[in-house]
Design goal:
single chain; Rossmann fold; six-stranded mixed beta sheet; nucleotide-binding; MacB-like_ATP-bd
Length: 245
């Protein structure tokens, strides 16, 4: 890995961060020219660290998460994943498409504002989806799903479908689904955007506690400044550029 050309917004550490981005930029072509959604963003996130990214709509928060998780390719810049069992640091942005898909399925969990649950599946079946995609055995799937639902306090709702659950419960199913593969990175895009303030606080407390207990490196975007109190660190995006909060 080459020496950084852009100083990351992070805390000095003797160990490699779980997630590291350097000089990320993303431009989109339009009829009026290019729109720069993200410009020269660098950051590091350690295990058990909850980083909250704030900024107005259009500041580049969702674009940043898409690039960190390999859901989109940057116009320039690179993303690394570290902290694996063998201590290897791998560049996500340099991986072949098939390898990147495998990494996303097993090492990166995603939580979305709109919950993203399959309406015809039960809570347990929704949580099970990533394990099915990974071709995990039936016995292990059953055990992991039960543990994930227990971790978010929904064991008694395993057989209910999304329309039978409250918004907060649906988002907890989304969190269980994101963590059932035991990822090392969690990316959450406005996870409390559709929740009332009380439920949002409960969900964010749950995320924080799970991140710390499982050693996950988490990046969460939000519009709500009250949620900053749950973060280990707050970063601010302004016009696609990242500053320390």
């Amino acid at each position: 890995m080459t020496s950084p050309t852009h100083a990351p917004v992070g805390r000095p550490t003797a160990t490699a961060p779980v997630l590291r981005a350097e000089g990320l930029s993303r431009a989109f072509g339009t009829g009026a020219g290019q729109v720069h959604a993200l410009a020269d963003v660098s950051l590091e996130v350690e295990a058990s660290e909850l980083v909250v990214v704030v900024g107005p709509s259009g500041s580049g928060k969702s674009t940043l998460l898409h690039l960190l998780g390999g859901l989109d390719a940057p116009s320039s810049g690179r993303v690394w994943l570290g902290g694996g069992p063998d201590g290897a640091v791998r560049e996500l942005t340099a991986m072949a498409e098939e390898e990147q898909h495998a990494v996303r399925r097993s090492e990166i969990g995603y939580v979305f504002q709109a919950f993203g649950l399959v309406p015809v599946l039960s809570a347990a079946e929704n949580v099970e989806v990533p394990l099915r995609l990974a071709r995990t055995g039936v016995a292990e799937r059953t055990e992991r799903v039960a543990a994930a639902l227990a971790a978010v306090g929904l064991s008694e709702h395993a057989l209910q479908r999304p329309y039978e659950l409250s918004g907060g419960q649906q988002q907890r199913v989304g969190i269980a689904r994101a963590l059932v593969t035991e990822p090392r990175v969690l990316l959450a895009d406005e996870p409390t955007g559709q929740l009332d303030s009380g439920t949002a606080a409960v969900v964010m407390d749950l995320v924080r506690d799970l991140v710390r207990s499982r050693g996950v490196a988490a990046v969460v975007t939000t519009h709500d400044p009250e949620l900053m109190a749950r973060a280990d660190r707050v970063l601010v995006l302004r016009d696609g550029r990242l500053d320390a909060g």
